[in-house]
Description:
Blueprint: E1 5-11, H1 18-26, E2 33-39, H2 46-56, E3 60-64, H3 71-81, E4 86-89, E5 95-96, H4 100-111, E6 115-116, E7 118-123, E8 129-133, E9 138-140, H5 141-146, E10 156-158, H6 159-162, H7 174-186, E11 188-190, E12 192-200, H8 210-224, H9 229-245
Parallel strand pairs: 1-2, 1-4, 2-3, 7-12
Antiparallel strand pairs: 4-10, 5-12, 6-10, 7-8, 9-11
Amino acid sequence: MNELVSIITPSYKSAKFIAQTIESVMAQTYTHWEMIIVDDLSPDNSNEIIEKYSAKDSRIKLIRLEQNSGPAIARNRAIKEAKGRYIAFLDADDVWMPHKLEKQVVFMDENDLAFTYSSYELIDEEGKDLGVFTTKERISYSGMLKTCSVGCLTAIYDTDKLGKVYMPNIIKRQDYGLWLKILKEINTTKGIVAPLARYRTHKHSISSNKLKAAWYVWRLYRDVEKLSLLKSIYYFCHYAYNGVKKYKQ
């Protein structure tokens, strides 16, 4: 199995962590990849760091947006430019374990899956371990409406089976919207329960602001998924309940 994997990385003010992110990709045991980093008009020196890596490794490509457009547009631009059969996602402050791509691509091939994911470890801004988010072995569209079990840094989809699928252009929770879009088509899939990546938490991130995150999920139900009011309330109640216990594993 030696299919090209296109890694999608939006970058904005990523100077502090982007080197660690890139190095985790360069350390992969699966080597047939391209990493497409889309700069969203960063005001820091992150591009200088990225360019140093791209000068050494032609698999690393930097695209600069002409105006600040948000992560959905940045990721979608990278997907548009991607040449790989597999589309994988890795944000500019997260890292992969060395065997991540190898294990997941083999898993997808052996199980004939169009979309997969894995569990992941949680770390803080200094890299301190904060526990593990253990995902579900199998997910479905209706199940994903109740709780997002897929971390963006673990997701991979197969363009041979799905074509190129893009994120909805919304302010937040674009990745959640993409997983729902894919699951609408395939209905169900399964993932790797072992953690294959490390997700970095930030004190002021959207995921740390529960009320704001909940609002964006509600808008996703209503504006993107076009659920009725009753269905939105039903799934939101499940989402809120699951959110309380999500990281207590």
